[in-house]
Amino acid sequence: MADRTESSIRIDAPPAQVLAVIADFASYPQWTGAVKEAEVLSKGAGGRAARVGFVLDAGAIKDSYRLDYTWAVAKNGTGSVSWTLTEPATLLKALDGTYTLVEAASGTSVTYQLTVDVKIPILGMLKRKAEKGIIDTALNELKKRVEG
Q1: Which of 23, 46, 54, 60 would suit a FRET pair with 72, their CA atoms being 20 to 30 Å apart?
Q2: What domains sit in the chain, N to C, each tagged with a CATH number?
Q3: pLDDT value, residue 60
Q4: CA dist., res. 74 & res. 134, Å (int)
Q5: Cα gap 94→65, rounded to integer Å
Q6: How many CA atoms lie within 13 Å of 71's alpha carbon, on the beta-carbon side?
Q7: In whole angstroms, what is the distance from residue 5 CA to residue 101 CA?
Q8: For the segment 47-85, what is each residue's pLDDT rounded down to a tens digit?
């Protein structure tokens, strides 16, 4: 199993508000730079998305993929949302991640862990740098969307 890359950010909003933005997949194309389409394909317990299809366009990297989601969250929004790639995509071989939301003194601490594996050979150092870029961009976009 590949190493995970991880980063955290503090968002000035309660965990439930942050979780609502994370769970609103239909809105991802409005606030995420690379996700051009997101469609909930199936729902699980509590009506939350269980499988979501995405179309990614990050310049040189274009792909479509499906993720299965696991929701381990409390009513107040704290806990974790995890996902795993369910069907190998054109470029992606693995895409596993987790958002962990913890109530902070003023807002929410969000930690994002990500493991990406692609079908083309890539140096570990370059892969981790790309993962770090994906995570930092995602966290900053999430913060801007929630606080905006």
Answers
A1: 54
A2: 5-147 (3.30.530.20)
A3: 62
A4: 27
A5: 10
A6: 17
A7: 17
A8: 999 999 999 887 666 789 999 999 999 999 999 999 999
- Is 104 within 8 Å of 10 (Cβ atoms)? yes
Q: Six-digit token pair at 42?
A: 């199936």
pLDDT tens profile 15-51: 999 999 999 999 999 998 889 999 999 999 889 999 9
**Spacing of C-alpha 102 from chain mean position:** 16
Residues in the chain: 148
Helices (H), 24-94: 28-31
Angle 124-147/15-23 helices, nearest 10 degrees?
A: 110
pTM above 0.70, yes or no: yes
Kind and range of the H or E run holding 127: helix 124-147
